[in-house]
Specification:
about 375 residues, alpha/beta, Aspartate Aminotransferase, domain 2, 2 domains, seven-stranded mixed beta sheet, 14 strands, globular
Length: about 375
Amino acid sequence: MQFTDLKTQYGALKTSIDARIQRVLDHGQYIMGPEVRELEEALENYTGARHCITVASGTEALLIALMALELQPGDEVVTTPFTFAATAETIVLAGARPVFVDVEPDTCNIDVRLIGAAITPRTRAIMPVSLYGQVADLDEINAIAARHGLAVIEDAAQSFGALYKGRRSCALSTFGATSFFPSKPLGCYGDGGALFTDDERLARAAREIRVHGQSARYQHTRLGVGGRMDTLQCAVVLAKLERFDWELERRAAIGARYRARLEGLEQVTVRPDRNSVYAQYTVMVDDRETVQAALKAAGVPTAVHYPKPLHLQPAYAAYAADAAGRSPPGCPVSSRLAARVLSLPMSADLGAADQDRVVAALRTAVAAGAR
C-alpha cells in the first residue's frame, strides 16, 4: 500500500503526461516555454484569480509574495507554528519576524480569535496556513487585516482546489501561494508552485522577482530570485488537470468514508462552510509511536504532519520570545497536536479494500493501547 499512490495516477494519465512531456522535448524551450503561460491561464480560470505566476516551489511562492510586499527589517508577519518550516522560513528570509499564534484544536488551522492580540505597529501581514487541505477562516482574517491595513498571504500549499464559502483556495486574499510538490493534491514530478493575486502591481512585482528582478532582459529593477517553474513541470500539471475534478470528488468520498468508519476516534474537523481536498487525512491518537509501529507491522504506511511546532524548533526559538525577550507560555494547542496527529494513506486512487485495511489496523492499534 502506498501512502500517496502516484504510480496508479500516472498509469491513468500516462498518455497525456507522456505526450505533454514529448511536446516540450520537441520544442526545447525548457525555461519559460509556452506551457508556462498555458498553465497560468488554466489556473487563473480554475481559481478565479486575476493573476497566476508559476514559480519554482511552494516555498518560492511564499518568499516572492513577501518580497513583493517590500518588507523592511523589524516588520512582523503573524502566522501559525503548526505548519511546515517553509512558512516561517520565508518570513525570516524576507527580513521580517514571524509572530506565532496558536491553532484551533479541531481544525489545526490558525485560531482567528488570537490574531488581534498578536498585531503590533510593526505588523505588515498575516499568513494563515490552509492545513491538511482545508482553508482557514479567511473572511475573518481578511476583516482583521483590513482594519489594520495589512496584507494576507494564504499558505495554500496543501489546499489547492478546496472551496471556502463557494470560492477557491488561492483566490481569497492579497496573495495565495500553493505547491505542486509530487504528493500534493495537484502535483508535478519535482518541485513547482504558483502564486495568485488580483492586484496588478503585486503581480507585476512577483513576475519580475521570479526572474532575478528583471523588468526586461538584463534590466534589474528590483531584488529578485531564480524562481521560475520548469516548462516540463508545467506540462505535467497541465496533464494532471485533465482529471483533477474527478480526483477531488474521489478525495471527498474517501474522506467521508474515513470519517464514517473512524467514528469515535478524534479526527480533524471540516467546517460546514468549506470543504477539504485532504492533502492528508489526519487523526489524533495517544501513544502515537506505539500506534504507528502497529500500523507499520500491519503494512499500513503513515506520516506525521508535524511532530514539532515551529516555536519549539531551534531555528525559530528566538521568535518564540516576546519583544522584551521573555518566553511566553507558547502555543499549547500546537504542542499537544504535534504529539498526537497521525496522517493516514490518502490519494484519489485509494481503493476501498485498502482503506478498510487502514481502518481495521488503526482501530486495533488504538484499542490495544487503551487496554
